[in-house]
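Supplementary Methods, section 5.1.

A reviewer requested that the exact input to the structure prediction be made available. We therefore reproduce it here, unchanged from the version used in the analyses.
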Amino acid sequence: MLRQFLAELAREVGLREAGRMIEKGREQVRKFIAGTIENPHPRTRKAIGELYIERHGKKGRVAEAQVEAPTPTPLKLVLPRSLEKATAEIRAIFAPLRRSSDAPESTAGVEQWLLRHVKSEYAAEQGSYGPKRKRRPKKEDEEEPEA
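The structure derived from this sequence is encoded token-by-token as follows.
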């Protein structure tokens, strides 16, 4: 019910204003509406609830409808931590299917799609600057002592 109310409020006044009304940022409002944030902090839920009561009154309840928000499990939580190990595990999972004569024609395509998806998930974790690199020690300009 709160998600539906906040979605209607955001359509009415905009994400920024809706966020200001509950003292949160527009990105948090967007993520809650989209279902990325399943359960907001109790203070946030309280603020949304108070705003709902302020706008609709206690008797103006909307019929509660169960909204199924997609909650995807990131592959990073299921697969090994490194991209190389995750890729190797996916290939190991699909290896018996590739050798099988009963494998559907789409097996290779699904494997390639999954590998691309895993690669993009792990790349997003590293940020837009690429993998972290070790810093080289600074070279000190040392003068050799004269003999």
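The two ends are 84 Å apart (CA to CA). These observations are discussed further in the main text.
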